[in-house]
Amino acid sequence: MPKKVDHDERRRHIAEAVVRIAGRDGLDGARLRDVAVEAGMSLGSVQHYFASKDEMLRYVVHYLGEHVTERIMAGMCSPAVASASPVRSFLLSMASEMLPLDARRRAERRAGQAFTALAVGVPELMKDLGEGDRWLRERVTDLIVQGQRDGELRAGLDPRLESVALLAMLDGLGSELLLGLRDPEEALSAVRYHLDRLAPG
Amino acid sequence: MPKKVDHDERRRHIAEAVVRIAGRDGLDGARLRDVAVEAGMSLGSVQHYFASKDEMLRYVVHYLGEHVTERIMAGMCSPAVASASPVRSFLLSMASEMLPLDARRRAERRAGQAFTALAVGVPELMKDLGEGDRWLRERVTDLIVQGQRDGELRAGLDPRLESVALLAMLDGLGSELLLGLRDPEEALSAVRYHLDRLAPG
After folding, report:
1. Whole-prediction pTM value?
2. Strand locations in A10-158, DSSP E?
3. Angle CA(A117)–CA(A65)–CA(B179) in degrees, nearest 5?
């Protein structure tokens, strides 16, 4: 009986190969052919799932976005996080998952950067990038509003500008970590320090 | 009588050509040959000043660093800035000059990014990058200490972490501006908002 190949499973398998290449060699010179070798598939099979490198990277970024979201959610559901400051815990968990603090997250960020570099000048990909950014910014804004309503965060904060500031900080720390200009402990200290000041009093 | 060519002047002339290319087409595919055309010089003349693209970009980054510093200083000496909050004014001026808020500063940032991309994996260039980063971080830390001593900034701030946080924020906003994810007014509002909270209660 022929084995039924799960379409989504194959795409995820290819995405993982892309992340490994990103972490090891970067994606600048990577071709679909290299991805096929890494994934242990023929070029034709990879092309069956992705017609171009653009399309593949676009999928990888969505895939990683879901992956990171799942990890944040899993972190949130651990007993340690059922805390008196759920918004702070969530933002800290988000920061930890977004920052390139270990090999896996460095590879993820490199894949994201490769996508961003590719997206410049390609309206369809820039639209993706803009939507992802807006989605994240709105979620963080909503969380800050929630924290204010529940008395966990200062009433005087401007939720929209706090969201812009925090996401910019994480973006910058991410680049600096990747370049080795900050180490993980220093980056996390800066995030914790910043989140502390959002609390009342 | 042969015209005496000022060595530094020629290097600055070439650096300006590099910045124009960065602003227009990016530097990814740019070769010394393209820089020569843009500068209106022969390839041999450009090579007389810079043996390689690495060496040229290294000079350009130093040149731009001095340029930005000069602009910050000029901004500081304007009558409007002789204010009751010199540290805040300085940091805001620094942010305005570092962020890609107009065509010139976008070109400068693109040149900086090209240098950074080139520096990855090249110890000599990474050392440059690390030194530039440390220099800036220490200057901002010192300024925050000064602001605290003079009562302009909150006594409770951690100067080192404030410096890391502010520079990360500017780094992130810079990338986001270049990608069109933020507009100049939004980015500056976030910076002003952030600086406001450093002032005493």
Report:
1. 0.90
2. none
3. 30
